[in-house]
Amino acid sequence: MATGFSRVVGFSNPYEFLEAVKSSDDSLMNLSLGALMDSMDEQQIRVRNITEDSRTLVGVYDGDVLALTLVKVASDFPWVLGSPRDRELVRPNAKAAISRLVSFLPMVVDPKSFDNVLSPDFLVDAFIDAWVSGMTARGLRIEALPTFFRSKASFATLATLPPSSLVLSKYRIELASPDDVETLAHLFLDFSRSSPNTASTWEARTKMDMSVRSGEIWVCREQGEIAGYIATDHRRKGIAEAMTVAMMRYFLGAQPLGFDGTPYGPLVKGAKEEICLNVAEEHVKRLYKKCGFLLGESDRDPATGKKLWFASAFRGVKVLED
């Protein structure tokens, strides 16, 4: 039986939103919170031209309990729906909450500005259906676009990490430097071609420069050359596995790390409880399973018993000409 969703809140600033969701910082909210936190970084604000008007932050409540969120942080990033794990919505309740959200959203944004959404698949599909129906009833000519891609959002923890491997010691894995930006930009262009929003050369350089300066990009070097973020000539050498496990061990605070190249001292932002990623292709899923991500239908976190993945979808709409 569907729950009654009594309240929809538009948050006036990111700090109010973060206060509202601070008890729900888990894997199901990772993309929403991660995108928002990134958008609050001073360098990202400057490079991405983010203003207070760039952000839309909405919550749907069941009584006093936050049940559903919708986040938009910048023009270069999709809308993101989130449902806290402690209030994980089943389908009938999701439709009821989304109906309230669709009625509210045109009051705070131009409906023509809504483009695409990335979230758990049943939330995305329900939202797109409700949005097209709701906007059509308002006289807006709009159609749903085919799904851009479907994937699994998966998570790994200290409890799921494999033992430290000799493959880590074969390569030097370290933070990228400003001298690497041009090489990384070309690799990023290749990567972006699988996305519905292919980057331009300028966008790739700008993003890589910003990410390098923020200490967010790591590289693997083989004989002094960047091999990963994996260059074509360096594939099938175990580099992807080495980089994935190395980053997981570093950010989860595992000891011993098992590889060279890490900055000295503790993590600036602290060790993480979970490492999260999206994966769509079967051969890549096999790689990530070797690295400690649990992607099987019955896989559970050995420490908590919770499921460590969900089906994700990226879909959009198109406003038709009058």
Automatic annotation (TrEMBL):
InterPro entries: Acyl_CoA_acyltransferase. It comes from the Eukaryota. This is N-acetyltransferase domain-containing protein. It comes from Phanerochaete carnosa (strain HHB-10118-sp). The lineage of its organism: Eukaryota, Fungi, Dikarya, Basidiomycota, Agaricomycotina.
